[in-house]
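Run log, item B.
One chain of 168 residues. Sequence copied directly from the ordering sheet:
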Amino acid sequence: MGSEIPALLQTLLCLVFVAAFSSSSFAEASHDRTQFGHDILIDSGEVATDVTCFGCSVRVRGKVLTDVTTFGGGVVVEEGAEVGTDLTAFGGNVRLDKDTKVSGGVTVFGGRIRRDPQATVSGDVTVFAGGFWLALIFGLPLVLFGAFVALIVWVVRRFTRPGVPVTA
């Protein structure tokens, strides 16, 4: 019995050691940036892997290796900055300054794009301006979900009604 406790303690210490070093190595390797409600700045000289922002905006002065995506916010790619693949803004505007490079496509739903003539976009540029697209993308799923919930409530009420006694 006395030898079981040190073995258990050894195993526990080994697991703590592995968890501590593996989480720090993952943190060092990942340069993803995700925020909820706080603007993101990729400063000049900074490199990020993937940038996603919910209810906020993104300003790129450095380099993003893959995608930049915002939901309810805009994207500004400043002079000399670079986006490695796609740039997408749902409910926000996009501004591409002079000498910027987007290696993929640019898609804007419910916003506008301001693009300098010297900005380079390798892929397609797609703009769905106006609130109709936002209502379609975000409103339609909510309406369908509400209809589904109403159907479930109706079915439950229909089959759980108490029986009405028959009087003679």
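Observations after the first pass:
- The mean pLDDT is 83.
- Residues 44 and 61 are 5 Å apart (CA to CA).
Flagged for discussion on Thursday.
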